Every structure is written in structure tokens, then in C-alpha cells.
């Protein structure tokens, strides 16, 4: 039999097991790339397996017991990876706080605070000391300024004018100058300077100022007299505050001359403006400044009344009698006229000018001067005083004066 030829007509077939030199170049390049990628993936997988962290327990932590305050449980110690710097925090076994389910529910149900609410809430918990307003317990001082009066200073400290007058030199109560240092007590009352020659103990001093309980003086913090008894004799020149005490009426300091009956017959006899000893006078009273405005009354630190009016307004004699003084007064009244009326005398201060002089006898209602602001005065007004046997009286209580 004739053998068939192994060579067939048509395109030649390539075996996959033939030499690579028979493959196209682009197929060989793709194969190399795939081989390199497989090797790289194998190396990465091996690195991840080698560097994997220790297994973390997935067991549920112990169930916390519900309570009003947070409870503490002890989860297993683990190594916690830090999010920055590749650092890790070693487990120390320290207790970590947990809260109860009820507290978790309450927290989730609470709406978040706004920025303003958060600020307000933080202020509630800022630690600071609250200092309440406390009453003053010690004496203090005030330096007088231009235009100050005893009444204005007293009002600034919530005290009466009498209190300021009783705790300072009498001169300050009558004319106050800028720079004068005024003693301000802690409350209304009087002040007393101890003189051992008087032999007065605390109980005697209390009685002198109308205080029934001497311990009010002993226990006053301003006096520093703790643990003494009412019969204690304080050292001389001890300055005591008498809470609620009432002192004497403060009078002018100018010297006067009186006759055997107590009538003032001369005012400030050493002054060149004194008219000498004269007596006599009437008994009918009239308003010295009917066109004025009452601005300040009579009290212990102010031995007359103040009546404001325009400069140059006429001032009238409140009663008839001889002129005892006419001229400048060094006690703060400026241009002054003093008239005698038997046991009474009247003073007219701060005049811009006078209409009478020594040697004259005036009648009630006669023009004796004009309103001004001379001496220690903060504005145009008349300072008017009435004295009986040289003791000051309230002009407003005198019938006919009109104030």
C-alpha cells in the first residue's frame, strides 16, 4: 500500500511547545510583565503576613452593673496603636471608666449646647470668690474739694450732717476749705476724745451721749475695745466712736462779751470791726430775706439757715437793736453784720456789701446789706443765725421769721 504523505497543503500550524523564537515579540513582552507583577504581589503578601499585629480579643467586656454613678470595669490589656507618629501606648492595666446603659441613654437624649449656651454654661462653673457688700466698720477720711459742704459729704457716705460735725473739729462744720481732712465715721453717731482728767469711764461717756448700753461703744469695731468692762478708763486722747450718740449743738467760735444777765453786748471784741459793748433791742421778728429760697436748715453742725437769692437782693434786719459787728469776719462768714436784741442776737453772713455800720441802731425790716457769696460760700445766699444768751436757736422755729 502506498503511504500518505505527512505534509498537507495549507498554512503551517505552530505547536505551543515549540521554541519561543517562533512567537511574536509583543507576546513575549506581555508575558514578562505579567511574571514580574506576580512576583511583586507574592512579596507584598509575605510582608503583610510577617508584620501583622497581635490578635485583639473580640470577647465582649464584662457587663457593667447599672448604678447612679459611673461604674468601672477591667477590659483585657491590649496594645493601642497611636494615630500619629507610629507610636504605641503600652497597656498598663489601669482601670478605664464606663457608664451604665441608663446614663448612656440620657446622654444621647440631651441635645448639644449651642456656642452661646456652652459659653454661659462654662461661666457657671468658673471658680471665683463672691465678695458681698459689707457695712463699713472703721473710720475713714475724706479730703475736701472746692465747693464741698458738710451736708454734701455726709450725703455721699449716707450719714447725717450732725454725725460729720460731731466727729470733726467744730471749725470744719462752720466753714470747710479745700484740702481739709474730714473724718468719716462708719455710721451715724457722735465722737468723743477721752481726757483722763475728767475721770469718765465708758459707762459715763455712753450716758453723756444718750446711750443706755455702754457695750455699744465697747463692741464697736472702730474703737478696738474688745474685752473691756463699762468701768474701763481709756487713756487720754483716745478717740471713741459712739454709735447712735447725740452730741451738743455746734456754735460759732468767735468770742463774745456778755453782761451779768447773759445778754451778748459785743461780738468778737478783739476785731477791728467790732462795735464795742452795746445793749438794747426790740422784740418783733420779721423775715430777713422774703424773696429768697430756703436751701439749708438748722442742725448740730450748722447753727443757722441758708437762704439763696440773686446777688444784690436786699437783706432786712430781723429785729430792732444796736449793730454789734459790721465788717469782714475771719470765721468764714465774709462780710457780716451782727445785731443785738436784748437776750437775742442775729448774724447775717456772706453779704456782697453792707448798708449799716457801727454806732447805728436799726429797726426791724430795715435794709442792712445785700446778698453775696463772700467768705466760705459756694454761691450767693444769706447765712442767718439767731442766738438766745449766745446759744444757737433754730430760726425756722421763731414766729415771724417765715422759714
> For the terminal residues, how far apart are their CA atoms?
173 Å
Low-confidence stretches: 1-10, 64-91, 118-133
Rounded mean pLDDT is: 78
Secondary-structure element series: HEEEEHHEHHHEEHHEEEEEEEEEEEEE
Helix content: 10-25%
- Assess the beta-strand content as a share of residues: 15-25%
What summary fits the major beta sheet? Answer: 10 strands, antiparallel
Please give the count of helices: 8
Structural class from helices and strands? Answer: alpha+beta
Number of strands: 20
Shape descriptor reads elongated
**CA gyration radius, whole angstroms:** 53 Å
Question: What is the fold's blueprint, element by element?
Answer:
Blueprint: H1 25-50, E1 72-73, E2 80-81, E3 88-89, E4 96-97, H2 101-109, H3 115-124, E5 140-143, H4 150-156, H5 161-166, H6 170-174, E6 181-184, E7 189-193, H7 202-208, H8 215-218, E8 239-243, E9 256-258, E10 264-267, E11 293-296, E12 305-308, E13 314-316, E14 321-329, E15 334-341, E16 344-354, E17 361-362, E18 367-371, E19 381-388, E20 391-393
Antiparallel strand pairs: 1-4, 2-3, 5-6, 7-8, 9-10, 11-12, 12-19, 13-18, 14-15, 14-17, 15-16, 16-18, 16-19, 19-20
Describe this structure in words.
With 403 residues, the chain is of the alpha+beta class. Helices cover 18% and strands 22% of the residues. It has 8 helices and 20 strands. The chain has helices spanning 25-50, 101-109, 115-124, 150-156, 161-166, 170-174, 202-208, 215-218; strands at 72-73, 80-81, 88-89, 96-97, 140-143, 181-184, 189-193, 239-243, 256-258, 264-267, 293-296, 305-308, 314-316, 321-329, 334-341, 344-354, 361-362, 367-371, 381-388, 391-393. The strands form 6 sheets. Strands 11, 12, 13, 14, 15, 16, 17, 18, 19 and 20 form a 10-stranded antiparallel beta sheet that branches. Strand 11 and strand 12 (305-308) form a beta hairpin. The chain is elongated, with a radius of gyration of 53 Å. It starts with 24 loop residues before the first helix and ends in a 10-residue tail after the last strand.
Amino acid at each position: 500500500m502506498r503511504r500518505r504523505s505527512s505534509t498537507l497543503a495549507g498554512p503551517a500550524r505552530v505547536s505551543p511547545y515549540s521554541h519561543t523564537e517562533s512567537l511574536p515579540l509583543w507576546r513575549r513582552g506581555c508575558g514578562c510583565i505579567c511574571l514580574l507583577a506576580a512576583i511583586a504581589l507574592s512579596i507584598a503578601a509575605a510582608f503583610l503576613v510577617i508584620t501583622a499585629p497581635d490578635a485583639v480579643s473580640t470577647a465582649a467586656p464584662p457587663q457593667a452593673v447599672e448604678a447612679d454613678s459611673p461604674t468601672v470595669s477591667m477590659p483585657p490589656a491590649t496594645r493601642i496603636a497611636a494615630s500619629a507618629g507610629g507610636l504605641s501606648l503600652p497597656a498598663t492595666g489601669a482601670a478605664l471608666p464606663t457608664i451604665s446603659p441608663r446614663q448612656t441613654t440620657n446622654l444621647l437624649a440631651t441635645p448639644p449646647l449651642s456656642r452661646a449656651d456652652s459659653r454661659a454654661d462654662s461661666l457657671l462653673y468658673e471658680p471665683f470668690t463672691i465678695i458681698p457688700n459689707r457695712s463699713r466698720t472703721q473710720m475713714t477720711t475724706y479730703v475736701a474739694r472746692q465747693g464741698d459742704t458738710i451736708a454734701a459729704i455726709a450725703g455721699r457716705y449716707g450719714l447725717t450732717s450732725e454725725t460729720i460735725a460731731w466727729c470733726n473739729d467744730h471749725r470744719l462744720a462752720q466753714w470747710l476749705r479745700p484740702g481739709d481732712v474730714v473724718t468719716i465715721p462708719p455710721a451715724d453717731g457722735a465722737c468723743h476724745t477721752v481726757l483722763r482728767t475728767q475721770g469718765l469711764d465708758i459707762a459715763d461717756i455712753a450716758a453723756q451721749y444718750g446711750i443706755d448700753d455702754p457695750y455699744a461703744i465697747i463692741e464697736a469695731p472702730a474703737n478696738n475695745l474688745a474685752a473691756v468692762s463699762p468701768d474701763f478708763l481709756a487713756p487720754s486722747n483716745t478717740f471713741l466712736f459712739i454709735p447712735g450718740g447725740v452730741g451738743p449743738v455746734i456754735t460759732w467760735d468767735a468770742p463774745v462779751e456778755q453782761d451779768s444777765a447773759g445778754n451778748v453786748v459785743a461780738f468778737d471784741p478783739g476785731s477791728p470791726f467790732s462795735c464795742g459793748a452795746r445793749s438794747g433791742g426790740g422784740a418783733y421778728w420779721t423775715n430777713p430775706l422774703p424773696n429768697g429760697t430756703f436751701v439749708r436748715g438748722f442742725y448740730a453742725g450748722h447753727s443757722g439757715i441758708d437762704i439763696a437769692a440773686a446777688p444784690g437782693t436786699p437783706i432786712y434786719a430781723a429785729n430792732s437793736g444796736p449793730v454789734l459787728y459790721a465788717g469782714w469776719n475771719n470765721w468764714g462768714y465774709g462780710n457780716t453784720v451782727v445785731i443785738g436784741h436784748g437776750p437775742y442776737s442775729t448774724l447775717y453772713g456772706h453779704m456782697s456789701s453792707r448798708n449799716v455800720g457801727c454806732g447805728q441802731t436799726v429797726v426791724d425790716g430795715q435794709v442792712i446789706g445785700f446778698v453775696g457769696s463772700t467768705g466760705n460760700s459756694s454761691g450767693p445766699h444769706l447765712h442767718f443765725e439767731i442766738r438766745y444768751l449766745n446759744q444757737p436757736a433754730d430760726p425756722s422755729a421763731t414766729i415771724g421769721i417765715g422759714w
